[in-house]
């Protein structure tokens, strides 16, 4: 009689129904196959069955209810299939002898059945890496025989206080050895219960990535058997308890990425078997106790991003002989780098970045044969003589070196030629911010795998060697701010992977090479401040990948801008200023609708401004000054509602200056030097237009003629301000704004008794604000903004009795804001934003009745706003106090300040209700209340929305990240038709999208994410023709996506993920040809993916269709998405072979296809995805020869091919990139291993191939198996 059957192999097809005829079987293992379909009920006929294993076999459907005659069953192993829905309701009642239940790595979602607690014999419960939601059974502890509980990687908990009630009950599970609850959604208000310290046999406690708060319980020190403690990536606070030193069996200790403080306790260093210790990214201070440096078992020591001080022991390499990773970056360590480090022969990572280490780099580091990452950046290290640079020659022996960071130190002299002999594995070579001289060493092309080469901010000279064009993987080349000269070699056009090219501030000359057109991955090109001449090659404007910036400013370029400039539809910054360009601006420039910053000043452009500029809805700064533009003043610029700075000065415009939009803020615009302008707001002091008195206009001009005037603003002046300027006693106006001046402000400027205007903004001035400026009794305007001034504001400035305009924003000033300035009775404009001021705002500022503009944003100010502020500041137009620590209620009296246009209270701690009377502010344009503690619960609390419908000029309304609940009032649809920004994400608002939302015809941004909204998306939302961003993600919306969304032709980002939408994806989205990001994940979409989606060629950031029920194949049209960075179609029901055309998406960095039914082989075209960082093809039906060509994807940091049917040899090469945080993290499906989440390659979980090289965790296969067994 057959009692055991083990058919673990690569069988295909479905499980035969005749399996039930083997009635005598007690053991049935048919895992690691490629079955189709669900678990057959016929297995229930095997009445003597004790052990059932069908893991990793592609099973789908639900887990069937077990029949009554399987009562002998003790073990079920179904992990890593595609089973969905719930656990069987009667599982525990019908299987009384069940001891082991392995269900990890499926798609189960429905919460636990209550009957589960009746499984009294259960010892192992593994449901990790599913999609379970809701709460865990509060009496789970009734499973008293549990040895291992794995709940990792689900969606358990929702931040409710009772989410972790089950943990205290586990005190009854006295035999529990492993407790894994990583990466769920517990947290917010949930501390770690003390009762966990009463589990005497616990060996693994892993609660990472749950947003847990509170202290680390003292009681955890009672866990004498504990081997692994992982509480990383939470929000724990307070001190580390010394009781943790009692954990005598501990080998792995990770409390990184929390908010712990105080000193690192010495007690933990007495745990003699400790191998892994990480407390990085906390708030620890003081010295590291010396016993840590005598812990000979230690392999991984990470304390980065804290406030630790002291030195590293000089014998550290002798006392820590097993050390693999020494990670102490971003602290305040000082002293020399210990020479003895070379004795720690296993070292792979030495990260000392951003400290105060000094002296020479040891010359013997080359003996570290395993060294992969040496980061010494941002310290005080020096190399002056040739012998000091000997460490470079020594490092040529480190054949595995991938990262070498030397930036921001005090290195001088010439690079040794041996730098070209460094490891061919080297990917990052960064040495910017030093004073290194000489040329680029010959042989640099030997570093064939370089991805980043940073040599900026040094004294390098000579030409760029043409051989640098052989570095085919180069992604970033930064040679800016040196003294390089010569022409740019055409060979740079061979760098097809180049993403960023920085050559600014050098002495290059000649023409810009047209070969750069081949760099079709280039996002940023910076050639400013050189001597380039000739015309701009048309080919530059055909680099359609340019999205961050194109900077050609401060050269000698000539000619016109070609119409091809309209091809740069993704460009954010364009700077062609300070050249000799001429002609008219092509109308096509208006097609660059993503532009935020456009600088064209200082050229010879002529003609009128094309009306297409009116399409630049996102523009923030526009400078067209000092050209030869003429014609009617471009009043359509009034509609650029995002504009914050507009300079049209020194041209030949005529006609009336408008008063709306940006033209309503005198500090944001400049129209000087256009002699035929009129109108505008009074602050511009322009003559009235012809329908006004001509006599009055002539008197105004006469005043200008006789004013002694010194204005050199908007040039490229450098050097210091001459002290002799203080001898020009008749000066009334000094304007040297937006130059490159350095040094301190001369004290002598305080000797100008007639000075009325002192404008030195936007330079590089340093030092204190001179006390002597307080002597300028006639001064009316003081503008020192956007410099690097430091120290305290002198109280003498309170003597400037004639002052009306005071702007010292964007400096590095600190201390308190002096009260004296508040006694200048005529002060109208006061801004000290973006500094380091702290403490309270002196009360006299709130009694300064003349004040119109009050801006103190981005400081560290505290206190409350006076309740009578609207009465005491009746002329206030702008109240800007965002990004501080103000608290208390919003004053009701604000409604009395009838001239208010801007109220920005964002990112503070304001609380209570929003005043219901703000609607009386008829001029209000910007109301930003985001990121506070404001509430609205009842309908009457929402009355402020109805009130705001009276504000007909409202453009911005920010309500995000507060405590608003309840239903939005219908009156929100009656807000101003001028409204462009409506942001209310991160609250708990419920109900549907109010009817009439389409009335807000000028909406550019609508964010309702992270709330509890329900219902369908109204089709009328497709009438919002200017909508650029629509974010409805993380709600409870349902229904189908209305086809009318395809009418949103300006849409740049559509976020509908994590809702309950169903039906098919509408093909009308093809009309959204400006769409860069489309996120539809975690819904219930079905059917095939419309081919039209793959024709949205503007998609560049991400396309996320994951976690739905999509079927069918990927069409070959997917190859059209040549600019796409992230593609995620994981966790669907897609099938067929991967089209070869997917390899044409060569900008892809993240590709997730796991959890589908794809089959066949991996197309060789994947070898073209040179920029890929993360690739997950796991849990599919791929087969054939293992795709060894993936070994050449040198940018890859995570590669998961597990649970497929590949055969053949697995290659051994790997070249991951340096540590960094990704836009999207993925963790491999490993049921009984706590695998690290970055920089590894995983093929299956029985043999773990970890090429995990550069992050701050394990480094070798041996250490992984040691810690994770």
Automatic annotation (TrEMBL):
Catalytic activity: L-threonyl-[protein] + ATP = O-phospho-L-threonyl-[protein] + ADP + H(+); L-seryl-[protein] + ATP = O-phospho-L-seryl-[protein] + ADP + H(+)
Gene3D superfamilies: Ribonuclease Inhibitor
Chief place of localization: membrane
EC number(s) given by UniProt: 2.7.11.1
One GO location term (cellular component): plasma membrane
One Pfam family matching this protein: LRR_1
A GO term, aspect molecular function: ATP binding
Residue intervals passing through the bilayer: none
Entry keywords, A to Z: ATP-binding, Cell membrane, Glycoprotein, Kinase, Leucine-rich repeat, Membrane, Nucleotide-binding, Receptor, Repeat, Serine/threonine-protein kinase, Signal, Transferase, Transmembrane, Transmembrane helix
Subcellular location: Cell membrane
Every Disease resistance R13L4/SHOC-2-like LRR domain range: 948-1084
Membrane topology recorded in Swiss-Prot or TrEMBL: Single-pass membrane protein
PANTHER family with a match to the protein in the record: LEUCINE RICH REPEAT FAMILY PROTEIN, EXPRESSED, OS02G0216000 PROTEIN
Protein name: non-specific serine/threonine protein kinase
